[in-house]
């Protein structure tokens, strides 16, 4: 099952909370799962960023279970690695001022405090 947490945590804290509940961060591997996770996070908070289980801590983008990235839904010009330290993925808010980025994937600092989906 899935759950969106409208609690601000960094990526590692979010992963630990998911694991403590017997799960892991959600992994949108296809469009149907991605669409479902978007609905879930928007029901929790349409105005917030939400981490999901994708990072490039080992140099390339992989899911937290080590699975490779086949399906993507990056926002335009993402992943950008802005500032040179954006190693984790989150969803843009549904209310993002740039309409084409709404609910799209964004690369983010793993230390940023945002919501998350298990």
From TrEMBL:
<dbReference type="InterPro" id="IPR001304">
    <property type="entry name" value="C-type_lectin-like"/>
</dbReference>
<dbReference type="InterPro" id="IPR016186">
    <property type="entry name" value="C-type_lectin-like/link_sf"/>
</dbReference>
<feature type="domain" description="C-type lectin">
    <location>
        <begin position="1"/>
        <end position="118"/>
    </location>
</feature>
<dbReference type="Pfam" id="PF00059">
    <property type="entry name" value="Lectin_C"/>
</dbReference>
<protein>
    <recommendedName>
        <fullName>C-type lectin domain-containing protein</fullName>
    </recommendedName>
</protein>
<dbReference type="InterPro" id="IPR050801">
    <property type="entry name" value="Ca-Dep_Lectins_ImmuneDev"/>
</dbReference>
<dbReference type="InterPro" id="IPR016187">
    <property type="entry name" value="CTDL_fold"/>
</dbReference>
């Amino acid at each position: 099952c899935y759950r969106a947490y409208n609690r601000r945590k960094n990526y590692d804290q979010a992963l630990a909370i998911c694991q403590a509940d017997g799960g892991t961060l959600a992994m949108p591997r296809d469009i149907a799962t991605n669409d479902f996770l978007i609905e879930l996070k928007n029901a929790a908070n349409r105005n917030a960023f939400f981490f999901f289980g994708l990072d490039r801590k080992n140099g390339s983008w992989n899911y937290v279970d080590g699975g490779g990235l086949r399906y993507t839904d990056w926002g335009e010009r993402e992943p950008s690695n802005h500032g040179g330290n954006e190693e984790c993925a989150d969803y843009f808010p549904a209310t993002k001022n740039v309409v084409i980025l709404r609910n799209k994937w964004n690369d983010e600092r793993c230390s940023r405090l945002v919501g998350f989906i298990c």
